[in-house]
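hey team, just a heads up i'm posting the complex here instead of the shared drive bc the drive is being weird again. everything in one block, sequence lines first with there labels, then the predicted structure for the whole assembly after. its two chains so it's a bit long, scroll down
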Amino acid sequence: MKTPSINTAKTASGIPALLKTACFNALIALVLFSLMVGVRTEAGSDGQLTYWTRFGEVASLVAAVFGGSIVLELLKQWIGPTGAEKLVPPAVQSGMSFLGRYLAPALLIFTLLVPVIFYDQRYILDLAILVLTYVMLGWGLNVVVGLAGLLDLGYVAFYAVGAYSYALLATNFGWSFWICLPLAGVLAAFWGVLLGFPVLRLRGDYLAIVTLAFGEIIRLVIINWQDLTGGPNGVSSIPRPSFFGIPLDNSDNGLAARLGIEYSPTHRIVFLFYLILALALLTNWVTIRLRRLPIGRAWEALREDEVACRALGINTTTTKLTAFATGAMFGGFAGAFFATRQGFISPESFTFQESALVLAIVVLGGMGSQLGVALAALAMIGGFELFRSLESYRMLVFGMAMVLIMIWRPRGLIGHRAPTVYLTKAHAISSDLVKEGHG
Amino acid sequence: MSRDQILEVDRLTMRFGGIVAVQDLSFAAERKKITALIGPNGAGKTTVFNCITGFYKPSGGAIRLSHDDGKVIALERLNDFRIAKQAKVARTFQNIRLFPGMTALENLMVAQHNALMRASGFTLLGLVGAPVYRDAEKRAIDLATDWLKRVNLLDRADDAAGNFAYGDQRRLEIARAMCTEPALLCLDEPAAGLNARESAALSELLLSIRNELGTSILLIEHDMSVVMEISDHIVVMDHGVKISEGSPREVRDDPKVIAAYLGTDEEEAAAVMESGS
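-- predicted structure starts here --
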């Protein structure tokens, strides 16, 4: 008999508060929408201002907000006083980490089979390549942001360096993709160190701003150094990658002719797919290994407490620089792949928006989590395509989805941290304890 | 600098703008002994510590550290992480600074960073899984396990350090400092916030570090029961200068020390002492 009485008491006290909240929300909606929706202005035929009112629409919007907030409040009461954490009960959370153990191999097998399953669906193959490119970029940035805790808003700069390195080396000297790929990585890593030096003393917001500026500087240099980079016109007719020397084309030397099968343009797409998959998996493998090495532990320690690192004799300067260089190198690889896939690159591909997107993938995935980043890239890039039919509203839907995910899982899809070494049993470490780093 | 001194602070001065935090401070810490630095709040103890461990650059004076092999290192010329790496001075912090999101074992592994870095061929050998590195890692885990045993935290080796109780965090921080295999261990108020039982366990731990491993210890401490019990030598500071020095007994009976702690004039303190005796 105890429980119902509590319930009725709760509902009784709830109704005035409920109406109050709903009225308040409706009032805010009224203020906002009365000008945004209520008055429609347009330039008339002679350029004069014409306007008309749409109070009916305003009324329905306000009513919708009023009703919506009542439903939301009732839902809250029905589920109980939940915080963001409680929406995902602990049992489910531990279940998810259990699931995670099988999710990664399952995803990998599925990814390996994508070209087989979707062989004649060019659109899906292209989308898969795009997703994998961002998975790789996310994994690369994860080293800098997720492990070392250095907020880098200019990651696209290394992507650009990699892309232009390959494009210029291949078009000017005719070097093959397989020679240029490591060079692109090395050059990007070099720029990573170069960026690293001046920003070593900076932390947090300041670091973010300077890295953002660095990304813009690289883009502006590319635009303005016309002789070398072709400026805004970009670099075109970049050689396609060969299958270790054998071109993937319609010629007699082509792979199709040599294998005695009919040529199809899809061959190249499938090859590109496996190429980026291999590069992404290389990134993943190296990162996982590095995490278990002293350098990776030093990166994570740096994220946790820089002062303590210094007291333990860790050279924080080189530790930060190696993090920058490693992340930049993977960005450079991805850039070289991007250039060979597109066949044409221009500065427009390397705007701040790309950096923000990759950073969003890392944050959404859960900083430091490899699987989380892969899932986030799939959700961000794949999901973005999914909403294509919504046209201009898709940004809105997308933004709302992001906000909701961040409310439910503020530390990203996979927020907990797996220890790098253990004596008896590896327990996942709760995201509450893991620091984000101070830059 | 005599052979049995590990640390010699010579006319150390530290100014912050117009404020003189430490003035002409000279003292020495003996090898394989526990030296305590005590004094009322604001006496400049932590500043001295930060100068010794390289977090501050002294405005004047010299700090010399001599290793067992007779090599003398001028600490005031080394900066930052090099003091821990080359001079082998380890420290703990007044407000504990563990890596909260890493397990106890990981904390102790990070402490062995430099040795493991060399063993991993600066990552390259480690990346390909060379046996050289695997052996070194195994030894590092053994050392960490040994220390977890000593500080009585072995059963919590795989738990996040941030989840530990306060006293456990203190002990883990000492274990982490010891995993760097230091010549001199500097402890900044290790007994702060510990209850009587934990303080006693701490005293025991520090004595075992001195007796069994022969590591010299320099500590700042407010808990007089700990200081008087374990210290071989005590240096008393007040307002940035040394006011007394000696064995625990000598210091305890020094009227200047009593005056500093009671906050009275020297004459008054002397009067108090006389009337008491």
